[in-house]
# Entry
Amino acid sequence: MTGYGSREVSRMLGLSVGQLRSYVRAGFLHPARGPRAELRFSFQDLVLLRAAQGLLGARIAARRVRAALRKLRSQLPEGRTLRDVHIRAEGDRIVVADGARKWSAEDGQILFDFGTAELARRIAPLARKPSAALDADGMYERGCDLEEADPAAARAAYERALELDPGHAQAHVNLGRLLHEAGEAASAAEHYRRALEARPDDGTAAFNLGVALEDLGRRAEAIAAYQLAIATDPHCADAHYNLSRLYEHLGQGAPALRHLRTYRALTGHA
# Structure
């Protein structure tokens, strides 16, 4: 029998069976039916329910949560699914983020960070400062300062840091992240691997490598990377969550549930 029963989901996510059924009635969950017409929830349903919990925990009214999540499916760009985006509360607003794009789930309005222009004005002079005297750490720090206002200049700074010190783990991690955000997952994965060669206990590099490998469709390698992240930091909740999702894709229900329960324990979703 595929999927999860109502009581099982209730225990895992700390929601009542009544709440689960209210979400189904609201129309944003479409569970399958078992042989006795019982509800069977998919892992995708669990992803959406987890988002709903976070919004309710931010004291957003349940009716707004239900309405927003019902609309969200039609707002997703082609090829994207609910597990690909981040849903969170920002003040009294339900916000969906997909990479650099951010919008309101309730009305679909694109949101713009009006602080970006001011940040760019303040940080841009850093890019014009002479760099000849800077060592690898100095170029790394410059990259950190420039990331939000000028990602291209930050990328160049990290590349220069790595010219000066090819084993600079932090520069590899940050450059990998910028490449990953630009859609260059294969190049990002290479930098994460280089970071791990220089610093084998770098949990961030291991986790980021797992995400990049997932994007490349290399699930077995992604699982190994997430397992390394957990070995380095057993409290890495996102690694447990991603492992749970990957094991679910592979049809391995027992480890999927084990990691999901660990995720819940670490994040307080009892």
Remarks:
- The chain is about 60% helix and 10% strand.
- The two ends are 25 Å apart (CA to CA).
- The longest strand covers residues 93-98.
- Residues 103 and 111 are 5 Å apart (CA to CA).
